[in-house]
Amino acid sequence: MEEASRQKETRKFYREVNIIRKGYKPRIGMCKDKKGNLVTEKKKVLQRWAEHFELLNSHGDEDGAG
After folding, report:
1. Structure pTM?
2. Which residues of 34-65 are buried (b: 16+ CB within 10 A; e: fewer)?
3. Is 13 in contact with 5 (CB distance < 8 Å)?
4. What is the pLDDT of residue 41?
5. DSSP readout, 2-54?
């Protein structure tokens, strides 16, 4: 941070200041399943996202885009 300040790198300086000021914020890994129930287990969340993107990709094929 001090180096960025000395070298007149304003963007880098303020980016580092904000990281320190805001602190650590853990990411929340959860989503809802097809029935609307909250899924929090990492493996099941990844599985649900895979289903979601598989669905998106299959719709692209129907339109002739894929």
Report:
1. 0.48
2. eeeeebeeeeebeebeeeeeeeeeeeeeeeee
3. yes
4. 93
5. HHHHHTT-HHHHHHHHHHHHH---PPP--EE-TTS-EE--HHHHHHHHHHHHH
pLDDT average per 10 residues of sequence, the chain (66 residues): 73 89 84 94 93 84 52
Task: Please name the amino acid found at residue 15.
Answer: R
The b/e string for 18-28 (b: 16+ C-beta within 10 A; e otherwise) is eeeeeeeeeee
Residue owning tokens 């070298």: 7
